């Protein structure tokens, strides 16, 4: 059994100063790599290729460091073992894919995401005070993105904001990438009757409004529900919690009142697009799920290979299977992690993936269980729980942009557990 060790209540101002002192005391490689890691939120603001290169470089240097130090203890964690097993099985499935080269290519590079999370957990973010410094980097990056989106709203208002990226990036950055920060902000806002609580509440309110402005419905819900859950589990004061929720609801309602087009997208179109509630022929999300399920039935054991759905969907007999209602909708992926794993890696891959998701959530939950005085640790499990929620309607499991956001947040969240182990030298099973 694990023993509980008390950790002094977190002081963010003090931790910020201590964090920089700790960074300056590191060896040259660790210091420079930590600084490089802290640049992540700003690199993600540029474009997907720089962000992908940033993450990939961290993975390569992390592996080189492990080889030099002969330290592979982190591989024994259940979540990484299952991630490694899923990767290997995905490559096996790629052999019989309709496009083996594309499938193998997409599957091969996916392992960089779990590797990054491992690097953050056991190396770059293992110290609590250094994680505070990263939270500030995320805060600044999020505020810059909010400023960009507010500017676009004023200059060229539209339902889905993309400027200057020309892609649906802002919603993912605000909601998925910044989710660890948002959870911490909400926890502080409902528990602190001081300047920190007021500031956290204001920033949280701003990010909720901007998240709604992006027009990204699922990302908005992940952020809103994640914030509520984080608020509930971390020492909430009823009046402060109620006040915060009231202000956020009123702000969103005012936004919808002044933007009927946005309100329609969230109200009528969102309800109609929920796959499990609407299985009609005109629902693209259910159609994508239906197509993914149908493809999974073609090769139920090992699937059609990573990213195979984009090549197979158009060739399907849309009248099958008879027991599934609705009509297939073909895209690059089924818009759901679980359906995609079923389609592209079969029942075996789906099972391994579920073990990986569950073990990541459990690892983050353990940080909460054994560190009662740290909002970062207490709310860590909310991040993977929200990102891996079964009925979410976004994301390609093997894609770039969405997974870059997702695994950055997971890496930060899972680091809380390893950080607790490092803090308590008497940690034992």
Gross morphology: globular
Amount of helix: 55-70%
Task: Give the averaged pLDDT, no decimals.
Answer: 89
CA-CA gap between termini = 5 Å
Uncertain stretches of 5 or more adjacent residues: 1-8, 424-429
Largest sheet: none
Number of strands: 0
Quickly count the helices: 20
Beta-strand content estimate: under 5%
Structural class computed from helices and strand pairing? mainly alpha
- What Rg do the Cα atoms give? 22 Å
SSE run: HHHHHHHHHHHHHHHHHHHH
Show the helix and strand layout.
Blueprint: H1 12-24, H2 28-38, H3 40-43, H4 48-69, H5 78-94, H6 100-109, H7 112-124, H8 128-155, H9 170-177, H10 179-189, H11 195-213, H12 217-233, H13 238-258, H14 260-273, H15 284-298, H16 309-312, H17 337-369, H18 375-378, H19 382-387, H20 401-423
Helix pairs in contact: 1-8, 4-7, 5-6, 5-17, 7-20, 8-9, 8-11, 9-12, 9-20, 10-11, 10-12, 11-13, 13-14, 15-17, 17-20
Question: What does this entry look like structurally?
Answer:
By secondary structure, this protein is mostly helical. The chain has a domain at 12-158 and 334-423. It is built from 20 helices and no strands. It has helices at residues 12-24, 28-38, 40-43, 48-69, 78-94, 100-109, 112-124, 128-155, 170-177, 179-189, 195-213, 217-233, 238-258, 260-273, 284-298, 309-312, 337-369, 375-378, 382-387, 401-423. α1 (12-24) packs across α8 (128-155), α9 (170-177) runs parallel beside α12 and α11 (195-213) runs parallel beside α13 (238-258). It is globular, with a radius of gyration of 22 Å. The N and C termini lie close together (5 Å). Residues 1-8 and 424-429 have low confidence and may be disordered.
């Amino acid at each position: 059994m694990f023993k509980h060790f008390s950790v002094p209540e977190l002081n963010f101002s003090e931790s910020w100063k201590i964090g920089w002192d700790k960074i300056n005391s590191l060896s040259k490689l660790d210091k420079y790599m930590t600084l490089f890691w802290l640049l992540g939120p700003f690199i993600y603001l540029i474009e997907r290729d720089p962000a992908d290169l940033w993450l990939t470089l961290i993975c390569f240097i992390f592996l080189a460091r492990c080889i030099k130090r002969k330290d592979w203890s982190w591989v024994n964690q259940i979540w990484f073992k299952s991630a490694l097993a899923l990767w290997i099985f995905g490559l096996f499935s790629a052999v019989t894919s309709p496009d083996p080269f594309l499938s193998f290519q997409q599957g091969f590079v996916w392992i960089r995401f779990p590797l990054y999370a491992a690097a953050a957990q056991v190396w770059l973010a293992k110290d609590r005070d250094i994680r505070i410094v990263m939270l500030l980097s995320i805060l600044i990056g999020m505020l810059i993105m909010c400023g960009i989106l507010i500017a676009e709203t004023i200059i060229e208002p539209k339902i889905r904001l993309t400027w200057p990226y020309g892609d649906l990036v802002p919603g993912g950055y605000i909601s998925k990438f910044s989710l660890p920060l948002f959870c911490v902000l909400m926890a502080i806002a409902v528990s602190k009757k001081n300047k920190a609580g007021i500031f956290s509440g204001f920033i949280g309110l701003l990010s909720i409004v901007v998240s709604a402005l992006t027009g990204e419905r699922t990302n908005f819900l992940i952020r809103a529900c994640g914030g509520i859950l984080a608020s509930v589990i971390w020492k909430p004061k009823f009046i402060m919690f109620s006040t915060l929720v009231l202000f956020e609801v009123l702000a969103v309602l005012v936004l919808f009142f002044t933007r009927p087009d946005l309100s329609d997208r969230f109200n009528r179109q969102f309800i109609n697009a929920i796959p499990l509630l609407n299985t009609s022929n005109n629902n693209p999300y259910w159609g994508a799920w239906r197509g993914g399920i149908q493809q999974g039935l073609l090769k139920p054991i090992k699937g059609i290979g990573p990213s195979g759905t984009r090549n197979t969907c158009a060739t399907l007999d849309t009248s099958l299977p008879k027991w599934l209602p609705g009509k297939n909708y073909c895209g690059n992926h089924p818009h759901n992690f679980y359906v995609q794993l079923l389609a592209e890696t079969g029942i075996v891959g789906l099972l391994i993936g579920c073990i990986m998701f569950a073990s990541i959530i459990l690892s983050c939950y353990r940080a909460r269980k054994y560190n009662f005085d740290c909002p970062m640790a207490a709310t860590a499990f909310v991040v993977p729980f929200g990102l891996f929620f079964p009925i979410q309607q976004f994301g390609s499991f093997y894609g770039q942009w969405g997974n870059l956001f997702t695994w950055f947040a997971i890496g930060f969240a899972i680091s809380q557990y390893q950080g607790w182990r490092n803090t308590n030298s008497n940690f034992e099973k």
